[in-house]
Design brief:
Helix content is about 25%, strand content about 25%. The protein is of the alpha/beta class. The strands form 8 sheets. An 8-stranded parallel β-sheet has the order 21-30-29-28-27-26-23-22. The two termini are about 45 Å apart.
Length: about 800
């Protein structure tokens, strides 16, 4: 039953009716904005559709449904939010529906607006709020799962008036608009004083609106979804009428719902009214003959929606985990509440070592959180606390709850364990629980991991002084062994610090570096984003003084890290981020040569995007890199010469790494985006992997109060695989997928080594077949490949991993 994916993930079909025709009952609806002038703040800046006639094109009545942002007849902005568009209707007019025509494409990072604020004014001075088109829209935004989509957001009748209509559009990436229509309302609206709140500063108002309207937009969309299901149900007419009235009452009072602050953790259902909407859906499920409460399964990394459930409960549902010693592996199941009332159950472990409260198990009842793209996800993994003989879990009416189980085999002896997980509520449900801990122990993976964490200070993006230690602990548990520091970690001398021979006149302070290294004591590598320019301490790149001063500086850095017990080969300087031009390559060469002249062993890290890596100065740059770390993307896929070139750079003296930096990661499939990253490393013999970024919640300012539990309260895209608030960090399914990938890498590497050493030719042949399957598995490199809602076989990695484990048990 794909109700959640079809409805709660906003897959409604876009209406093709004229906006005015939808808003006005008259036979000849009138678009009173047609031909009216439009002013912008700021001016349009997207080059592919920018032209001198932009101010005329939004009200010329001409639509461009195909490739909107490449059409001169449309208008666009990049990197600007909010954007103000003000239409002068010429005189005070009665205003009915308003439509905003736009387009989006997930694959290229163009998303639906997070808010389209409508304000009206008689005099262009006093402005009244007339609604948010993203809340008061007649149809939900279509899904972006299939690429480019054009859509008109059409408001309900605001019953207002004004000479000026202003739209303030907030978006995290691009603002693209094709046409705006304002439909004439009924004449009596001229006598109605606008009732919306007076807006003093519409830009600030629009910036705050995505967070303020988040609950309203979600509840409004869910009401429309449940109402459609209700209309199609076989519920008795009297009950159906009662449920419909309840939904209408909530919809009519949508503006009275609570408004969250950016610091609030938003968990569905958001409020009592939202819970009532889901309760109606619970009644619909009950009318289909489903039991009030039942457990079922899906592969743990497959997407599940808040109201997904099978047509009938499965007869047999069991749990199974098969793992090496020294691993952390996971399993999950789902509980659906097909009733009108919320229920509370108690989970308990029976018959397994350490029952009823085993130290080796972590149970998380996964909360539902929304995303900036309005795709709800079950991804956060808070610790459920054992109390009164079990783990208490609540399941809201009409919803499905995912239960995530993490097992730490380092706390168990090698054995096959059999027990049950008991769900006690209105009825008792027993799930068989089989746990096999192999006698084979995982060796250290041998794969380095970085997350561009920037944990050298007390705040960066979502990381703060209050949550920093939790963040580092969680990263270390996930095999992060290569922390990142910002430029402030390094001592940066001034021109007056050097004498006439380009020698430093006084000792440099390494206090920042020492503090950071102490936080990450025992790390395998330490990387610093140096963020260099074309000069150093008053000397320009290319000058003899530049070479001498950088050489002296790098020599002192290498000497200091040695004094800390760190080999300079494990201390890396990242000079230029994602360099792609000849000019950047030339600057990189100048810096790298100067660094190497003073400290030949000091590591130079680079994440290159050079289009011609085999020739000229770009090739010269590659020769000076100690760590070559390209992003896994379509451009660098195995079908191009780029990947072949990167592989040629792999050697004992030059390490190959891979990284990913697509986003927003919360709506990405954790299996393909995170877990498969380590499989790519194994496929190509890479020594490290990284992902942007552990702390990036979508803001550079922790003081803003934003957090990754509330993506509406930040001004950018979220990239973190965990859930970060100002004072805590919570594990997530995406982060566990990254960790499992590293453990997979370890298992496959162990099999590769065993196959090399064994004298049993039959086992060697079997091992080589499994390793060939493993190398053939990862294929996804484009951002469009990672949509979590896509149905993919997420069991492939476990099948291959278990084949490898069974062979290891025979070979070791």
């Amino acid at each position: 039953m794909r109700f959640a994916a079809r409805v709660f993930c906003l897959m409604a079909i876009a209406s093709c009716l004229c906006a005015c025709a939808q808003a006005d009952n008259s036979s000849q609806p009138v678009n009173i904005a047609l031909g009216c002038p439009v002013t912008f703040d700021p001016a349009p800046n997207y080059s592919l559709c920018k032209d001198p006639d932009d101010a005329k094109q939004l009200t010329d009545g001409v639509y461009h449904p195909d490739f909107l942002w490449g059409q001169r007849g449309s208008v666009g902005w990049q990197g600007v939010s909010p954007v103000l568009m003000t239409i002068d209707l010429g005189k005070v007019q009665p205003i009915g529906a308003i439509s905003y025509s736009t387009a989006a494409n997930f694959g290229v990072g163009v998303f639906w607006p997070s808010a389209v604020i409508v304000a009206v004014s008689d005099d262009n001075i006093t402005w009244h709020f007339a609604g948010d088109l993203m809340v008061r829209t007649k149809t939900d935004a279509p899904s972006l799962r299939n690429g480019y989509v054009a859509h008109r957001f059409v408001s309900d009748d605001p019953k207002t008036r004004g000479r000026y209509v202003r739209l303030a559009v907030a978006n995290k990436s691009y603002v693209m608009v094709d046409e705006i229509e304002v439909c004439k309302g009924q004449d009596e609206y001229l006598n109605v004083q606008p009732s919306g709140e007076v807006i003093a500063d519409i830009k600030t108002f629009a910036q705050q609106m995505p967070c303020r309207s988040a609950i309203k937009r979600r509840v409004a969309a869910d009401i429309r979804a449940v109402k459609a299901e209700l209309d199609a149900s076989n519920i008795a007419a009297s009950k159906k009428s009662r449920y419909a009235a309840a939904l209408k009452n909530i919809a009519d009072n949508i503006d009275t719902l609570p408004e969250p602050a950016p610091a609030d953790k938003l968990i569905m259902p958001y409020c009592s009214e939202h819970a009532q909407v889901f309760a109606v859906y619970g009644a619909i499920l009950s009318s289909r003959g489903l039991p009030p409460l039942f457990a079922w399964k899906k592969p743990r990394y497959e997407y599940v929606g808040p109201c997904d459930c099978p047509k009938s409960p499965p007869k047999d549902t069991g749990l199974s985990i098969d793992m090496m010693r020294q691993e952390r592996r996971s399993e999950s199941f789902l509980i659906t509440n097909a009733s009108e009332k919320p229920v509370s159950v108690n989970l308990s472990v029976k018959g397994l070592h350490g029952s009823p409260n085993p130290a080796w198990i972590k149970i998380s009842s996964v909360p539902w959180t929304d995303t900036a793209e309005y795709i709800p996800v079950a991804a956060a993994l808070p610790d459920d606390h054992y109390t009164k003989g079990g783990y208490p879990v609540s399941i809201p009416a009409g919803m499905t709850r995912k239960i995530w189980i993490t097992v730490d085999s380092s706390k168990l002896a090698s054995s096959r364990y059999k027990g049950i997980l008991v769900i006690d509520g209105a009825r008792r449900i027993k799930l068989p629980f089989d746990l096999n801990v192999s006698r084979v122990a995982m060796i250290q993976p041998g794969l380095s991991v970085c997350m561009w964490d920037y944990t050298d200070g007390d705040k960066d993006r979502g990381l703060t002084q209050k949550n920093m230690s939790q963040a580092i602990k969680l990263m270390r548990e996930g095999f992060v062994d290569s922390p990142w520091g910002q430029p402030v970690v390094l001592p940066w001398p001034k021109v007056e610090d050097f004498d006439s021979n380009n020698k430093l006149k006084a000792a440099l302070s390494f206090d920042n570096l020492d503090k950071w290294v102490n936080r990450w004591h025992g790390a395998s590598n330490y990387f610093v984003f140096a963020y260099v320019g074309d000069s150093f301490a008053g000397a320009k790149a290319g000058e003899a003084a530049f070479d001498a001063r950088v050489s002296e500086w790098s020599r002192l850095i290498a000497g200091h890290v040695k004094s800390l017990g760190i080999s300079p080969k494990r201390f890396g300087l990242h000079l230029i981020d994602e360099p792609s031009s000849d000019a950047q390559a030339q600057l990189f060469v100048q810096w790298a040569k100067a660094i190497k002249s003073g400290a030949p062993d000091l590591c130079v890290f680079s994440d290159p995007w050079y289009p011609n890596p085999e020739t000229g100065v770009q090739h010269d740059a590659f020769l000076l890199m100690d760590v070559v770390c390209p992003q896994l993307c379509e451009k660098n896929s195995e079908t191009t010469s780029y990947m072949k070139y990167y592989i040629t750079r792999r050697s004992s003296e030059q390490a190959l790494w891979f990284y990913r930096a697509w986003g927003p990661t919360r709506i990405y499939d954790p299996y393909r985006y995170y877990r498969m990253l380590a499989w790519y490393a194994f496929k190509y013999g890479a020594q490290g992997i990284g992902s942007w970024s552990f702390g990036d919640i979508g803001t550079y300012n922790p003081a803003s109060g934003g957090n990754s539990w509330n993506e509406f309260g930040v001004d950018g895209q979220s990239f973190t695989p965990v859930f970060i608030a100002s004072d805590d960090v919570t594990d997530g399914i995406h982060w566990q997928a990254m960790q499992e990938g590293v453990e997979d890498y370890a298992c496959l590497s162990m099999l590769k080594d065993a196959a090399t050493k064994t004298k049993n030719m039959a086992l060697k042949a079997q091992a080589e077949r499994v390793l060939a399957e493993a190398r053939a598995l990862p294929t996804d490199t484009n951002s469009g490949d990672f949509d979590w809602l896509d149905r993919v076989d997420t069991a492939c990695a476990d099948k291959i991993r278990l084949q490898a484990l069974r062979l290891l048990e025979k070979m070791l």
